[in-house]
């Protein structure tokens, strides 16, 4: 079943001589249980693709559908509800609230969507337990390591009945051991039925994905699927 579909999506900022085309006629489909890695140089449109896929920005042209529902037909409130219920975000800087405990951070999206505090905390603890963080539930973000904070961010992104996970360089601030652990956790979420789009600059981490999409100047210039390993992303002459 298709969870995310982007049809001929373009995004431009500004007017006239100052106009910048961040995305140009991008097509992307991600099914339930699938992980797509997005790679490309700085300024290629990777982060813009994520914000449009998650309804945080509107496409200039084209259409985005989540679970078959076109975003263009949704009101602002409908989009906000969709983000709370169906879309999980993981950012490089974690975006955890320092004044809330780990469990409270994870439960927050559910509580904002009207779930009772007790039920939301129970769901949060279940998500934390799945990521081996149950013993950190009562701690605050400042009391955690970088890897633990990123795992909390993933728990918050997958709690409840989320269908789509969008991750922007989720391992960029982590060492190689924690970076691989984060990708493994995202992969496990996909095995449970979520669809994931992960922006990364690291070929080793991209090898966890079912498919890699390459962006340059807002265009999809290539796709690779499936990946036998990170070496498949190296161009001729880069191997030693």
- What best-fitting shape do the alpha-carbon axes yield? globular
The first-level CATH class is given as Alpha Beta
Low-confidence stretches: 236-240
Number of domain modules: 1
Q: The biggest beta sheet, please? A: 6 strands, mixed
The strand count comes to 10
Return the structural class: alpha/beta
Explain this structure:
The strands form 2 sheets. This protein has a 6-stranded mixed sheet, with helices on both faces. The protein contains 7 helices and 10 strands. Helix 6 links the parallel strand 7 (164-168) and strand 8 (195-199). Helix content is 32%, strand content 27%. Residues 236-240 have low confidence and may be disordered. The longest helix is centred in the C-terminal third of the chain and has 16 residues, at 176-191. The chain is an alpha/beta fold. The chain has helices at 46-53, 76-86, 102-112, 117-130, 146-158, 176-191, 203-206; strands at residues 2-13, 20-31, 35-39, 61-66, 69-70, 87-91, 164-168, 195-199, 211-216, 219-224. The protein has one domain (2-233): Rossmann fold, CATH 3.40.50.300.
Ordered list of secondary-structure elements with their pairings:
Elements: E1 2-13, E2 20-31, E3 35-39, H1 46-53, E4 61-66, E5 69-70, H2 76-86, E6 87-91, H3 102-112, H4 117-130, H5 146-158, E7 164-168, H6 176-191, E8 195-199, H7 203-206, E9 211-216, E10 219-224
Parallel strand pairs: 3-8, 3-9, 6-7, 7-8
Antiparallel strand pairs: 1-2, 1-4, 4-5, 9-10
């Amino acid at each position: 079943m298709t969870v995310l579909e982007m049809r001929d999506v373009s995004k431009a900022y500004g007017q006239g001589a100052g106009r910048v085309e961040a995305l140009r006629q991008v097509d992307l489909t991600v099914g339930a249980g699938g992980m797509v890695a997005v790679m490309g140089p700085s300024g290629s449109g990777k982060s813009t693709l994520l914000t449009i896929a998650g309804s945080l920005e509107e496409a200039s042209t084209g259409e985005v559908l989540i679970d078959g529902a076109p975003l263009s037909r949704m009101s602002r409130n409908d989009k906000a509800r969709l983000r709370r219920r169906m879309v999980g975000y993981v950012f490089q800087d974690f975006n955890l609230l320092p004044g809330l405990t780990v469990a409270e951070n994870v439960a927050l999206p559910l509580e904002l969507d009207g779930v009772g505090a007790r039920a939301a905390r129970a769901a949060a603890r279940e998500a934390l337990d799945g990521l081996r963080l149950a013993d950190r539930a009562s701690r605050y973000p400042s009391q955690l390591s970088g890897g633990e904070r990123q795992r909390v961010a993933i728990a918050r992104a997958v709690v409840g009945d989320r269908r789509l996970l969008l991750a922007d360089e989720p391992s960029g601030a982590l060492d190689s051991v924690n970076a691989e652990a984060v990708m493994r956790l995202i992969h496990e979420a996909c095995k449970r039925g979520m669809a994931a789009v992960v922006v990364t600059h690291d070929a080793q981490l991209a090898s966890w994905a079912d498919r890699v999409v390459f962006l340059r100047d807002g265009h999809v210039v290539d796709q690779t699927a499936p990946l036998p390993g990170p070496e498949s992303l190296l161009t001729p002459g880069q191997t030693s």
